[in-house]
Recover the amino acids of this structure.
């Protein structure tokens, strides 16, 4: 930002020197044509007044621009510094929380390993359940604190509901507390959720939602071909290893019916704000996933009409632009826009793909075969 301001000031000085040079050229031309000899005193005085007035005007604009740019740049830097300090404070709180629960988890691990007596299955299950609830990576309060309440998350996910077929069977991989399951259920669809966290699944089941504890690959492999009308996942695939993610996408393609939607939402690595404030907040994330890689992965797995759907940008975090009427506001604001696109692009995106219809030849039956929709309607 400082370099941008310095460049603008340097350009102003260059133009000022050019104007002074033109005045000198004008004076030389007048003198050469004899104007100064006939009306020397008056013309010399007029040129001096013009030069003085022009110098005063340009100098005043320089002072105004310097004051304006310094004040605006200072406000931007103060804003950035405040955000950095806030991030450092939140990271410190998170680190303390994780350390505390990791210590409790380790204590329970040692307790379970040194349990010499033969406990009843119920007692052992209870101990493991307590350990699961205290795990720093599957603790429901962690999600409430850093991702938002059930209502906040549901509000952000509501835009995806119309993309899934009405009345269809939709699988939510990593359903968590069931925000999207609730939206699907309330809109007349038939959702089923998967998750590995007992505490999360308990919250979802408490809302009367259908969900099971299962690994994504294991669950998908057990499903028959062309048996689902849609598959959804939000803020989960960034936890997968690359090979595991490719297998999940391949299995999703197999179990989806022709025309069904696969939609995978994840954190947008093209936003530095999202990387620093969201992605690196969770130590279980494996690696950021570039939107174009996800487009390639779905297309390479057989999906058609693949597109990237970006969420809304964090508008309240963006750097403020200058008053358009201020001197040099246009180039200044153009550079602020470039910074905002780099720093504050949308925090998440979703990659969406459709399973194309199975090819049919003369006298050849559809390999997917007929299947029934929920409610008894026969799928064409």
């Amino acid at each position: 930002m400082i370099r941008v301001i310095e460049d603008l000031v340097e350009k102003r000085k260059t133009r000022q020197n050019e104007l002074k040079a033109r005045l000198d050229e004008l004076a030389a031309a007048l003198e050469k044509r004899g104007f100064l000899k006939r009306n020397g005193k008056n013309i010399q005085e007029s040129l001096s007044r013009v030069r003085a007035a022009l110098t005063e005007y340009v100098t005043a604009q320089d002072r105004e621009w310097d004051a304006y740019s310094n004040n605006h740049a200072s406000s931007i830097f103060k804003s950035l510094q405040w955000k950095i300090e806030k991030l450092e404070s939140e990271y410190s709180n998170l680190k303390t929380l994780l350390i505390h629960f990791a210590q409790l988890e380790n204590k329970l691990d040692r307790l379970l390993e040194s349990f010499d007596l033969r406990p009843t299955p119920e007692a052992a299950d209870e101990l493991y359940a307590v350990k699961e609830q205290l795990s720093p990576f599957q603790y429901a309060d962690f999600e409430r604190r850093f991702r938002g309440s059930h209502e906040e998350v549901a509000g952000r996910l509501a835009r995806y509901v119309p993309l899934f077929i009405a009345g269809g069977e939709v699988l939510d991989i990593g359903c968590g507390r069931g925000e999207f399951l609730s939206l699907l259920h309330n809109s007349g669809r038939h959702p089923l959720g998967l998750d590995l966290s007992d505490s999360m699944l308990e919250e979802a089941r408490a809302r009367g939602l259908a969900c099971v504890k299962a690994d994504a690959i294991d669950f998908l492999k057990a499903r028959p071909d062309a048996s689902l009308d849609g598959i959804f996942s939000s803020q989960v695939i960034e936890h997968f290893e690359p090979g595991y993610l490719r297998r999940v996408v391949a299995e999703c393609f197999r179990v989806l019916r022709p025309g069904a939607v696969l939609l995978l939402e994840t954190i947008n690595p093209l936003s530095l704000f999202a990387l620093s404030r969201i992605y690196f907040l969770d130590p279980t994330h494996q690696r950021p996933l570039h939107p174009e890689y996800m487009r390639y992965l779905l297309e390479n797995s057989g999906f058609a009409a693949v597109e990237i759907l970006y969420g809304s940008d964090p508008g309240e975090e963006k750097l403020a632009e200058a008053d358009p009427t201020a001197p040099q506001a246009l180039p200044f604001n153009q550079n602020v826009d470039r910074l905002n696109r780099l720093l504050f692009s949308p925090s998440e995106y979703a990659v969406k793909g459709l399973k194309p219809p199975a090819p049919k030849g003369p006298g050849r039956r559809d390999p997917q075969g007929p299947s029934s929709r929920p409610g008894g309607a026969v799928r064409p």
Q: What stands out?
A: Confidence is low (pLDDT under 50) at residues 363-380. The two ends are 60 Å apart (CA to CA).
